[in-house]
Design goal:
The protein is α/β, with parallel strands linked by helices and 478 residues long. The chain has helices spanning 37-52, 60-76, 78-89, 93-116, 156-168, 182-193, 209-217, 230-239, 264-276, 296-308, 328-344, 373-376, 392-399, 415-424, 458-464; strands at residues 3-5, 17-21, 28-35, 121-122, 133-141, 144-148, 172-175, 201-203, 205-206, 221-227, 245-249, 255-258, 288-292, 347-350, 363-366, 383-389, 404-405, 407-411, 429-432, 448-449, 452-453, 466-474. The chain folds into two domains: 3-250 and 451-471, 3-Layer(aba) Sandwich (Aldehyde Dehydrogenase, Chain A, domain 1); 255-432, Aldehyde Dehydrogenase, Chain A, domain 2 (3-Layer(aba) Sandwich), CATH 3.40.309.
């Protein structure tokens, strides 16, 4: 079936239609109407007027009610949401089900924030200047939120950007990735069905990059949330209006260090899953694995065999473990990077050739030079590079050599090695005896250096979308 969504901007007209196609077979699976600069102006004006008129603000109780109802509706439509997300984004059904479960839990998490996130009392009456006073803070919506999202988690990323905005009481305008807008539109529709007035959550795809820039950089935007490429994110940040706060989530290169004493039977299946999951199209996918030189052959061969055993193909089938890349051009890019690494001296242990115009096999390279393009950049494909090292200090130094800084991991039985890796790896998070793609949605999730700005994770995003407003009361009775 196909779904067709209008421009989800109150009072705006369409300037055309954008067809959404399956990344697996190219078939049309739906469409969304396109917003032009005039429609974006309408969206911003609506959101700004809503925020400025405090008589129209939704109470905390109403926001909780809407979010809880939305979660219930999503649970009722669980399988439908999972199948359609798999069709749209190419993530295998088994993993799309995990994404939908996370998204539902995330919406509930947003509702819970209103029960547990609050202001604080500020100490008064402790010196002559503060005597006779009581002071405390209250969390208040920061203003209009604009969110631009990525394709690789088409439902859950939207929940992470829109859900906290609803919880905090901010009007939100979201632009999903053009490859995967349908899951976003479904979620916004569910919020509206749950009772959210349409002006509070508007959604659109836009006609060109200039219109997207107008949306992000307008002076009425109080908070800008971006998930996508570093090149685009940093460019937009440089053009934000004065006073606009932001959070940027870009890519990483996810280094993993395997120590001599690691339990390989435990570690390697985790590494293979985290590297090949969603065809490697995750910002914290395992792509660089540093292993002791005397174990490099064994470890890389075992990961290669695990990859060979994974079923590649139609993401809507129960048996598929690796789906398509998002666009055929990505197949050609990944394949070129792999071939260039082999020419540079890497050993190809599995994969390395496109299976079709849309699918690429699980690929393992042993010892590509550190100067190869595949060693220098985020791969964003189903490729794991294994690198030999002679001592732990060398492994850490090489893991830290790139300007990316996101999640990393170390596998070891030694507390000292684990703590050394934690203290010395240039990362926002270090997983011990777990893969780099581990995440629960209430933990901090952040890229550092060129990998991002600010901290994600639902509670952290909620705090970003609120301000602590201070009240000081002076009274002789205090």
């Amino acid at each position: 079936m196909t779904e067709n969504y209008p421009v989800m901007i109150a009072g705006a007209n369409s300037s055309g239609t954008h067809d959404v196609t399956s990344p697996y077979d190219g078939s049309t699976i739906g469409s969304v109407e396109i917003a032009n600069a005039e429609a974006i102006e309408q969206a911003l004006d609506t959101a700004d007027r809503l925020y400025r008129n405090r008589d129209l603000w939704l109470s905390g109780g109403r926001r909780v009610e809407i979010l809880e109802k939305a979660a219930s509706l999503m649970q009722e439509r669980f399988e439908y949401l999972a199948v359609e997300a798999a069709r749209e984004g190419g993530k295998p059904l088994m993993d799309s089900r995990v994404e939908v479960a996370r998204a539902i839990d995330g919406v509930r998490n947003c509702a819970e924030l209103l029960r547990h996130e609050s202001g604080q009392e500020i100490a008064m009456g402790i010196n002559p200047a503060s005597s006779g006073r009581l002071a405390f803070t209250h969390r208040e919506a920061i203003g209009v939120v604009v969110a631009i999202s990525a394709f690789n988690h088409p439902l859950n990323l939207i929940v992470h950007q829109v859900g906290p905005a609803i919880a905090s009481g901010c009007p939100v305008i979201v632009k999903p990735a053009g490859d995967t807008p349908l899951s976003c539109m479904r979620f916004i529709s569910i919020l509206r069905e749950a009772g959210l007035p349409e002006e509070w959550a508007q959604a659109c795809v836009v006609d060109d990059n200039a219109t997207a820039e107008k949306l992000a950089c307008d002076h009425r935007v109080a908070f800008f949330s971006f998930i996508g490429s570093g090149k685009v994110g940093w460019m937009l940040r440089s053009k934000l209006a004065a006073g606009t706060r932001c959070a940027l989530e870009h890519g990483g290169v996810a280094p993993v260090i395997i120590a001599n004493d690691a339990d390989l039977d435990d570690a390697l299946p985790l590494i293979a899953k985290a590297g090949f999951y969603h065809a490697g199209q995750v910002c914290v996918s395992v792509q660089r694995v540093y292993v002791p030189a005397d174990q490099a052959e064994q470890i890389s061969s075992r990961i290669a065999e695990m990859g060979k055993a994974m079923t590649v193909g139609d993401p809507t089938l129960e048996s598929t473990e690796i789906g398509p890349l998002i666009r055929p051009a990505e197949i050609q890019r990944v394949n070129k990077w792999v071939n260039d690494a082999v020419k540079d001296g890497a050993r190809l242990l599995s994969g390395g050739r496109p299976l079709s115009d849309t699918c690429y096999p699980a690929t393992v390279l042993l010892d590509p030079p550190d100067s190869s393009i595949i060693s220098q950049n985020e791969i964003f494909g189903p490729v794991i590079c294994v690198y030999s090292y002679n001592n732990l200090d060398e492994a850490i130094q090489r893991a830290n050599a790139l300007p990316y800084s996101f999640q990393s991991a170390v596998f070891t039985a030694s507390l000292d090695i684990a703590m050394k890796a934690y203290n010395r790896l240039d990362a926002s998070a270090v997983m011990v005896n777990d893969h780099t793609a581990f995440r629960v949605d209430w933990m901090p999730f952040a890229g550092r250096r060129v990998s991002g700005y600010g901290t994600g994770g639902i509670p952290y995003t909620y705090r970003d979308m609120t301000v602590e407003k201070l009240l000081v009361i002076r009274s002789k009775e205090i």
